[in-house]
Amino acid sequence: MRFRRKRTHERRRSTSVEIPHRHSSTMGFKEFGSYDAVALAELVRKKEVSAKDLLDEAIARTEKVNPQLNAVVIKHYDYAERQIAKGLPAGPFTGVPFLIKDLELLEGTCTTFGASAFRTDIADHSGTQAQRFVNAGLTIFGKTASPEFGLVPTTESRLFGPTHNPWNLAHSSGGSSGGAAAVVAARVLPVAHATDGGGSIRIPASACGVFGMKPTRARNPVGPDRGQGWAGLTCGHVVSISVRDSAAMMDAICGPELSSPYVAPPPKRPFAEEVGRDPGRLRIAFTDRSPYGDAIDPEVAEAVRDVARMLEGLGHKVEARAPVLPADPSIAMSTIVASHTSLNLRLAEQRFGRALTGDDFEALTLASAFIAKALTATDYVAAELDAFRISRALSEFLASCDVFLSPTLCLQPVRLGEINTMSQDLSQIGPTLRRYMPGTAMFNMSGQPAMSVPLAWSKAGLPLGMMFAARLGDEATLFRLAAQLEQARPWKDKKPPVCA
Questions:
Q1: Tens digits of per-residue pLDDT, 466-478?
Q2: Can 46 be counted among the known catalytic residues?
Q3: Which of 14, 16, 157, 176 is labelled catalytic?
Q4: Is 423 an annotated catalytic residue?
């Protein structure tokens, strides 16, 4: 985590809770929702619509649905307007409005990490990924909700309150990129920034019925203040409606930086060129069970089998089998995440010059840091070794097939309040996560690309995402397959009840 930032108590400079001015949808571009980001950028290039038109419409859409969703928690509309007035860079997404997640620094704006301790902080520099979004020509008008430090697969921070799922407001939008997935599902934007340390792109993509690609480790930058996060588990990209937006955005922001400790295998061609390319006859393994062997929600299991049948119908070779893991991903991850959380709190205490308490951080964050104090350096290295052993097993498994299909979530999207980070009894969180999202974190450990594709909905109308993983560096195969699935079972026109 990065803490080298200015602090201010001027409420007008901190945009974390202000509701800015005006903006009527009549001033904007009403056809906005019919276009993905690639198409919007093309309209701007052709001067058929202006960046200001698109910004006005995006803001109007935010104001329409955000009271119900609580997904955009920091609004800096003035920042985007200054970007336009200054002149946007000539990039692949020039003039397209955009939201970044409230875990990423953007110079001159507030980033809270979902924590009360940072509710008035203003960044004195930008994260490398945020800067690449700026360089791509995007107009960044706010930040989306995240749980505190991105620790859980739901977005219900004490600081901002719960983010609601646009398909059913009583349910979670997922996490930790829950705000991003909610705004994309509700068609506020076609694409938004997201990050993933244990499933945080794929989980909300599944819960909200949008597309989410977790890239190969080191494909996209995480600096400049760190070389890797959570021992290499974390990465950043986007959630989107269209597959091509995800691919084109990866082209725009991928590549190493000066501080990168390692680099991802280079692609053969731009990722955008993979979209629409014939994937060929892929060898696809699949499972309708949890990696722990537990039975899963019957509707989720049947959805996996249905997608497997569809893949077979598309000409792929499909067989039911799954990797056998040599260690428990949840145990290794809890050690790694607790240790990094403890360091984050130590850095915060050094910065603020005082001990931090329950007024500053949630109970789960403090408990995680407390657990880490009982761990030894040997425990941490052992956790990294277990993560490597899991990575090795997954790499060997994917040497025998091209793609592995499994449910992104093994339960339907949880109801708000089921994962309570402020509870006096936190003992139920671990078992809940084991049942809910047991299969996502292992691909953070392996560094392999994995995507959640919105291919099924439950009888109650909740999205059920399907997860596909491939070999290290092989986003190309996933993008080709995703584009084929997008044509075979389109999801663009499936819109939730809460929709802009």
A1: 999 999 999 999 9
A2: no
A3: 176
A4: no
